[in-house]
Amino acid sequence: MRVNYEQSIALASTDPLTGVHNRRYLDTHLDQLLQRARANNKPLSVAFCDIDHFKRLNDTHGHAAGDEVLIEFTRRLIRNLRSHDLVARIGGEEFVVVMPDTPPERARRIGERLRQKVEQEPFAAAGCAPIAVTISVGVTTSRASDNFGVDLVKRADEAMYQAKNSGRNRVIIAPARRAVAAERSVTPQENDG
Ligand code: GH3
Ligand code: MG
Ligand code: MG
Asked: For this structure, is 112 an active site residue?
């Protein structure tokens, strides 16, 4: 009975197509990862990856080929990440990678490596010629002002959207902070003086 219970928990938190975590798993674990990072005074980074023109890929090669691309893409993600990084499929062709103990520059390099690993080698799908695939990636690192894990995901998503707008197949780092927030952050020091 215990095994069945654990199996059903695992199923409820796993994406059936790719075998990585699903959005529900991410939602229930990300806050904890952020709190732990904070308690240990370590940076937590998030990469939001979205496959470029995936609808067109489906239209051109068929939905089954699209599924194969999703599976192979997940393999490449996992192969190029550490075992304690968290990978979740949160939408059709949208994946979130959570990287504990990862400062901004390393997060950028990892995002760039993932982008290259997708672009460099075309994807195989049954009955299709090799398929060229690219991804757009948004990257961010935890800040003192982040209260919830979703704050990081939202910022990484916005950076990913910038990557789409600036031509796709690229990695964009979320800007340091908004101008208004920057102004506010100097106010207490001015008051101190
Ligand atoms: P962009 O470059 O702006 O990201 O464009 P896009 O076409 O990748 O994005 P859009 O959101 O327009 O399309 C996503 C497509 O993903 C549409 C949907 O049919 C497809 N999709 C969603 N889930 C699955 C799935 O499980 N399998 C397959 N094969 N396709 C899926
Ligand atoms: Mg897409
Ligand atoms: Mg998308």
From this structure: no
The answer to whether residue 90 is domain-embedded is: yes
Q: Atom 5 (ligand 1): residue with closest C-alpha?
A: 53
Query: Is pLDDT larger for residue 156 or for residue 180?
Result: 156
pLDDT tier, 4 (very low <50, low <70, confident <90, very high otherwise): confident
pTM of the model: 0.91
Which two tokens mark 23?
A: 């959005």
Domain count, the chain: 1
Q: Give me ligand 3 centre to Cα 178, in Å.
A: 25
> The domain containing residue 151 runs over which residues?
19-177
Which residue is associated with the tokens 């707008």? 165
Query: 133, 125, 127: which is closest to 168 by C-alpha?
Result: 133
**CATH number of the domain to which 171 belongs:** 3.30.70.270
